[in-house]
Amino acid sequence: MIGLRASDLRLPSAAMRIRWRSPIRGPWLTSVFGLVLLCALPVVIVTGLLDWVAYGSGSIPGDVGGLHLPRFDWPTRPAWLFRLTQGLHVGLGIVLVPVVLAKLWSVIPKLFTRPDRDLLKLAERGTLVLLVGGILFEIVTGLLNIQYDYVFGFSFYAAHYTGAWVFIAGFVLHVALKLPTMVRSLRSRSLRAELRTPLAETRPEPPHDLVAPEPARPTMSRRGALALVGGGSLLLAGLTVGQTLDGPLRATALLLPRGRTAPGDFPVNRTFEASAIDARDVGDSWRLDLGNVRLTRAELAALPQHTAELPIACVEGWSTQQTWSGVRLRDLAALAGVPSPSGADVRSVENGPFAHAALTADQVLHPDALLALRVNGADLSPDHGYPARVIVPALPGVHCTKWVAAIGFAR
Amino acid sequence: MSAPAPTRTPVRLAQAVGVLGCVALAGYAATIVVRDPTLHPSIPWMLVWFAGAVLLHDLVLFPLYAAADRALALLPATRVPLVNHVRLPLLGAGLTLLVYLPGIIRQGGPVVHAATGLDQEPFLARWLWLVLAMAGVSALVWVVRVTRRSAADG
User: Fold this and answer.
1) Looking at beta carbons, which residues of chain B come within 8 Å of A161?
2) If 0-12 CB within 10 Å is exposed, 13-18 middle and 19+ buried, where does residue B68 land?
3) According to the model, what pLDDT value does residue A352 have?
4) Are A297 and A281 in contact (CB under 8 A)?
5) What SS3 state is found at A348?
6) Which of helix, strand or coil describes residue A359?
7) Which of A47, A128, A229, B119 maximizes the CB count within 10 A of its CB?
């Protein structure tokens, strides 16, 4: 920036003469959108950061320096914890898209104003790139990820996590700088009065940077604009919530991959076909390797069986609850001669990115933590992890390893 | 408008510290992708997508929807204005297209199939039906409003 003065930066003069027409754009309306985002975005941020913690020692990206919530052993109670945090992260993230777009619409005249001569003001303005770029990058990568569209070609986890912190940097500064303006603007009009003001009585806000000097005739009241944005959020909520529900309501997620299931089935996050496992490796020759013990499926089925209703919840925000039966992991630990394990390493027959998972002591010892052999009263299908899969309360779906080959219990 | 009052020095100092802190945190965040050598080849693409998201929104999406909104002024004058009855279904169509684009344009099919065992076949038709439904409801409400207005005037 040395030697560069703000006055040297001149946008084409035509850009400065855009005629802004909206009669309802103004600081009050901007502040309403701002308040909604100020309340809701921290929930999206914290649930996203919690997701990193929930992955435990398998967090991706692995090395994030100090940029993470304090690490703690992800709880196993309540069983729906990850279903809630990740469902909120994805669901609320989608529901806020119309609010983000409305907020950007409401302040866009500022983008085309002449840069300030004051270097500090100019630098502040520069940080808006982090704020706006950050939120848009997070929305775009997040939406593509939950729809399995990896057109961007880079690691989703690393990009989304890094983008989150870039956004947080811009967001915290923006809130610190603009909070007084937001409070003042919100107080400048009464929400109750606005909700009673019809189109015919809608007038522009008093003169301000954001208020058009020569507005067009209003075609929508301020309450109409709020209802429009809220309606957009409701529409997206209605088209998204289904991916967390079981039964016929799942199909209400009309446009999401997780609104669909094969008839009579529930969703998987990796098919048997995609695992590229040789069918012979999970056939009669399959054994569960516990280190000092190797068990056939029949021997596992002869052990005491336990049944539990547990959710599978995925990082893409979808979830489903099913009835699983199998052998308690703690019984297997005892059988392996490690009745009080400090953790376990589960390995799959497959060689994919989530072919093994590390479990904490809690996750092994929870009475509902299972090596499941059956689901909903029938043997697991190949897609659901036959001959055996791990299912642990509140554990992220990808760590509930399918086609289990070996479990190593750590002393 | 009168010139704004000059900001007091302590406030400016705090603002400067805030800006520096923000840039420092964002810079430190960027080291997450620098720490992992396997990510180095994709850093330029991440930057392109980051900048591209801003530029596409500010210089493509906004001008497009603003121009489309301006075009609504060309609608014929009617006793019950048509403008919001066209604007709302258009916005609904645009919003759902943006959010659920991959399924609608069938992008990412092989990964969807590997993850779910299913295809993306139904999404385009479902989206078109949804758009049709929004347009239909909006038109129906307009007709009801026109009828009620006529009855009230009659």
Assistant:
1) 32
2) middle
3) 81
4) no
5) strand
6) strand
7) A229
| DSSP state, residue B78 | -
Nearest chain B CA: its distance from A89 CA (Å) = 16
> What SS3 class is residue A48?
helix
Option in B31, B58, B118 nearest A257 (CB): B118
Q: Which helix (H) or strand (E) holds B109?
A: helix B109-116
Q: Could you tell me the pLDDT band of residue A116, with boundaries at 50, 70 and 90?
A: confident
The H or E element spanning position A308 is strand A306-313
Q: Do B107 and A262 touch (CB under 8 A)?
A: no
Query: Could you give the domains of chain A?
Result: 6-251 (no CATH), 272-410 (3.90.420.10)
- Looking at this predicted complex, what is its ipTM? 0.94
What tokens does A182 get? Answer: 């937001």
- Structural domain boundaries of chain B? 76-154
pLDDT score, position A8: 42
How far, in whole angstroms, is CA B74 from its chain's centroid?
Answer: 24
User: What does the pLDDT look like over A256-276, one tens digit per residue?
Assistant: 999 999 888 999 999 999 999
- Tokens 């399918």 appear where? A402
Q: β-strands A343-348, A319-328: how paired?
A: unpaired
CB-based burial label for A133 (10 Å; 0-12, 13-18, 19+): buried
CB contact under 8 A, A169 and B26: yes
Chain A residues lying within 8 Å of B115, measured CB to CB: 148, 257, 268-271, 274
Cβ within 8 Å of residue A247, ≥6 positions away: none
The predicted structure's pLDDT at residue A312 = 97
Residue A5 has pLDDT above 90, yes or no: no
- Chain A within 8 Å of B124 (Cβ-Cβ)? no
Amino acid letter for position A165? W
Amino acid residing at A56: G
